[in-house]
Specification:
binds nicotinamide-adenine-dinucleotide, 39% helix, binds uridine-diphosphate-N-acetylglucosamine, seven-stranded parallel β-sheet, 11 helices, Rossmann fold
């Protein structure tokens, strides 16, 4: 059992991971500025884990760029913080092109501040949310961790920069113990339908969009390109159930705490991919609803195929995914049906 600081823990991946970490017996302090989330997510996490807010999970409203907020987080408990799981950040590729300064400030500047506070408080263990986006246009799939890092967006460059920053920090003194987890395409929701992805406004990503079409909130899905070099002409991705991803964090944390490696950089994906049309068909079959779609022009910056080589995760973390595409679609659809506006009300 460890005392953990979770940054960005109310977000999509953070909330599901908080649940898995509570279930694994850890105690959590969550530092959140709620810029892209609601504290309702963590209220439900506590409910699902059968704990009281303020008991094994403490919520602190604050920003990773603010030293006072970080001091508050690190001095919250008498016990020192054993490790940080760092989700806080901005993640929209298109927005990062429009607002690069904001992305570098939050993602890179915020991580610098966090690492400074960790150093002051004697905490040297961190799990960082990196992304498969660091690979840019992959030369070969499945993609191994040794593949060239060549991101093609400001968002991707902030993730690659933080990975470099973490390596530099790990080499600056003994004792640092770091995992950079490169997520592929996290989707789905907890099987209870109580927590899930709650995007503001028009979703950018495929799964939330398909969910909204299936329940009739949007007329049709626009599929970005039908002429890709794949079996059915639509792009292929390695979708990973968010609860598998959450369990991947628990596995990484255990390895860090038990073996104290300096830096681990690991893909978290299933190791196989599905096309957009295959996702649409799977959704229609689990929901018994039609998902009308239209094939439109390709989206700038998209790649044809992105699939993880997940061998290292299996060998180094002893972790493999357990949930399939049907589970992902079923759980995403159940969440959408029960929470049509996510954690928000229709008028938010
Ligand atoms: P999310 O937006 O749902 O969660 C991020 C959380 O961080 C939000 O709750 C937000 O309010 C919080 N936050 C943002 N800036 C903050 C700040 N300055 N101080 C404190 N809290 C702050 O996103 P997510 O999908 O849960 O992603 C979590 C992490 O994983 C992000 O770093 C993201 O870049 C990375 N990632 C996500 C995906 C994905 O597809 N969702 C893929 C690869 C990597
Ligand atoms: C996107 C980001 C990536 C990020 C990832 C995490 C871009 C270019 N890439 O990846 O950096 O790490 O999200 O969530 O934004 N699609 C449609 N119609 C839609 C939405 C998506 O056809 O309305 C297609 C896309 O072309 C893609 C697939 O569905 O082929 C998956 O898209 P999405 O969910 O946005 O993820 P990625 O593009 O893989």
């Amino acid at each position: 059992m460890a005392q953990l600081l979770i940054t960005g823990g109310a977000g999509f991946i953070g909330s599901h991971t908080c649940l898995a970490l509570l279930e694994a017996g850890h105690n959590l302090i969550v530092l959140e500025n709620y810029s892209n989330s609601s504290n309702e997510a963590l209220r439900r996490v506590a409910e699902l884990a059968g704990v009281r807010l303020g008991d094994r999970i403490t919520l602190l409203q604050g920003d990773i760029r603010n030293q006072e907020d970080l001091e508050m987080a690190f001095s919250q408990e008498k016990k020192t913080i054993d490790a940080v799981v760092h989700f806080a950040g901005l993640k929209a590729v298109g927005e990062s092109v429009q607002q690069p300064l904001r992305y570098w400030d939050v993602n890179v500047g915020g991580t610098c501040s966090l690492l400074g506070a960790m150093k002051r408080h004697g905490c040297r263990t961190i799990v960082f949310s990196s992304s498969a986006t660091v690979y840019g246009y992959p030369k070969k799939v499945p993609i191994q961790e040794t593949a060239i890092v060549q991101p093609i967006s400001p968002y991707g460059r902030t993730k690659a920069a933080v990975e470099k920053l973490l390596t530099d920090v790990s080499e600056s003194e003994d004792g640092w113990c770091i995992a950079c987890l490169r997520y592929f395409n996290p989707v789905g929701a907890h099987s209870s339908g109580r927590i899930g992805e709650s995007p503001y406004g028009m979703p950018n990503n495929l799964f939330p969009f398909v969910c909204q079409v299936a329940v009739g909130q949007r007329k049709e899905l626009k599929i970005f390109g039908g002429d890709w070099p794949t079996t059915d002409g639509t792009p292929v991705r390695d979708y990973i159930h968010v609860m598998d991803l959450a369990e991947g964090h628990c596995a990484a944390l255990e390895v860090l705490m038990r073996e104290r490696p300096q830096v681990l950089t690991i893909n978290l994906g299933c190791g196989y991919g599905y096309s957009v049309l295959e996702v649409v068909k799977a959704f229609e079959s689990v929901s018994s609803m039609d998902v009308p779609f239209k094939i439109v022009a390709r989206r700038p910056g998209d790649v044809s195929c992105s699939i993880a080589d997940s061998t290292l995760a299996a060998n180094r973390l002893g972790w493999v995914t357990r949930r399939n595409l049907v589970d992902m679609c079923r759980d995403a659809f159940a969440w959408q049906k029960d929470n049509p506006f996510g954690y928000f009300s229709k008028n938010d």
